[in-house]
């Protein structure tokens, strides 16, 4: 048998002998890696989701009212502004639908088609409605059903699920929404696109031109979202750190107990000529196996937990980047190997004669 | 120069002195027993001769190699290539069978060779217990596995610390007959530590220790 073959054979025998302890250590590593994957998955997944939404708009500037609504006349001003390449107004309002208060969003349907929405059904025209999935469930709406919004009978042409606030709203054409809610000519926000090389100047010019209107770049909006995300990430980092410390202590104590149990074995290996390096290799290899197994299981656990948290908190699943599996395994390896290292190094410092004397 | 030369060995611990200036020489191919009561310093002396412990002062040379000045890795290399150990407790790896326990010593030496390991076990009369784990072997059988393990790398010196300390008289005789055979037929140099006069009597020479000193050095009387 080659040296490597014997090494692997010995490792298998050794791990097989202590399946219970190996399982406990792997489970602790799995928990640690799982928490890291969950935290990373949620942070990255939500970040990507928000970033994707903003990108899909193609807009880089947003107008919002200082008070409750913008006047529709801003659209005329924008239409005549040479810096503005494209724009779309939106209206958010509450409306009575089948006896319940439901949020309705008035928008330019062409603008949301460009954002990649894919309704289950058809896009709505005048007098028609696109229902968010949660709102449809709550109101019992299906494509083709009639719905009465603020006393106006309309037809549901499709359903949509986005994992955002739209899911609990009804989407109407802007003019219908303004008319039905009595906010004719009013807007809640306008998303617009100005020449990307000239954003700051365009924003300054619009601010001057449109008094009583907040003109913000989407970077600023994104920054506010980033700040919110940053706080979530900080919280997750703290939780992750605490779990990491707790599980590292658990793995380390399991490893210490294993090494203590095998002190006689270490003494024997030294007596029959094993160098510190030879003996260390056996024990650290066990740490590597535990780290890889725990890391892979941690990825599965963390992925499932991240999806469950995302679905519960944000209403939709998130995409976890594939490289996270490597992060999980690396984390598992780090915890298991570092935790094994200290008790093994400590044991190797002992003299064989002291070990055999039980000191 | 003698095969084993121990010069003025002193071993002090924090609270006691185990060996107090011992000189000992052993010729190649001889069997020397070190006898004494518990705490006489005999096992400490054997550990120092085997490089498992270091003396506070003094020197040990084996076959012309001074071992007391060696670093840990050189000492490990010396042990695996030149020495064979048999202890009172067999110290077998519990999850390896007899052949694998012998092969572990081969692994640290160079390459493993299962046929050689099997031969070594047959040599000590364990051809029928090759794939049994230590828990499935009797005390005498376990000790014979340790002898096979000690011999597998063809050492120049066999060091035995109370090798029959846990065995009944019948198994003690079996182990001693095995050592005698190795000594007379294959010329092994043996240093054996024991507190039992029956065991020490199998040697050619008996050195008696008391309170860290050699108090007697005489031929065996059996």
Report the top-level CATH class of chain B.
Alpha Beta
Radius of gyration of chain A from CA coordinates: 30 Å
Distance between the termini of chain B: 28 Å
Question: What would the CATH topology of chain B be?
Answer: Rossmann fold
- Tally of structural domains of chain A: 2
The computed structural class of chain A is: alpha+beta
Based on helices, strands and strand pairing, what is the structural class of chain B?
alpha/beta
Can you describe this structure in just a few lines?
The complex is a heterodimer of chains A (359) and B (222). With 359 residues, chain A is α+β, with helices and mostly antiparallel strands.
Keywords:
heterodimer; A: 359 residues; alpha+beta; 2 domains; 10-stranded mixed β-sheet; two-stranded antiparallel sheet; 60% helix; B: 222 residues; alpha/beta; Rossmann fold; 6-stranded mixed β-sheet; 4-stranded antiparallel β-sheet; 7 helices; globular
Can you put this structure into words, describing what you see?
The complex is a heterodimer of chains A (359) and B (222). Chain A is α+β, with helices and mostly antiparallel strands and 359 residues long. Chain A has 2 domains: 3-53 and 225-356, no CATH class; 68-211, no CATH class. Helices cover 60% and strands 19% of the residues of chain A. Chain A has helices spanning 3-17, 19-57, 73-79, 109-114, 133-139, 174-180, 199-209, 218-261, 263-271, 276-314, 324-349, 352-356; strands spanning 61-65, 70-71, 84-97, 100-107, 120-121, 128-132, 146-149, 152-160, 169-173, 186-187, 189-194, 213-217. In chain A, strands 1, 3, 4, 5, 6, 7, 8, 9, 11 and 12 form a 10-stranded mixed beta sheet that branches. Chain A starts with a helix and ends with a helix. Chain B has a 6-stranded mixed beta sheet. In chain B, strands 2-1-4-5 form a 4-stranded antiparallel beta sheet, with helices on one face. The radius of gyration of chain B is 17 Å and the shape is globular. Chain B has a single domain, classed as P-loop containing nucleotide triphosphate hydrolases (Rossmann fold). Chain B has helices at 42-49, 72-82, 98-109, 114-123, 139-151, 169-186, 197-200, and strands at 4-12, 17-26, 31-36, 57-62, 65-66, 83-86, 157-161, 189-194, 205-210, 213-219. In chain B, helix 3 (98-109) packs parallel to helix 5 (139-151) and helix 5 packs parallel to helix 6. In chain B, a hairpin with a 2-residue loop joins strand 9 (205-210) and strand 10. Helix content of chain B is 34%, strand content 27%. Chain B is α/β, with parallel strands linked by helices and 222 residues long. Chain B has 7 helices and 10 strands. The chains are: A alpha+beta (359), B alpha/beta (222). The A-B interface holds A 1-3, 6-7, 9-10, 13-14, 16-17, 264-265, 267-278, 351-353, 356 and B 43-44, 47, 50, 52-54, 72-73, 76-77, 79-81, 85, 87, 89, 91-96, 100, 103-105, 107-109, 111-112, 114, 149, 153.
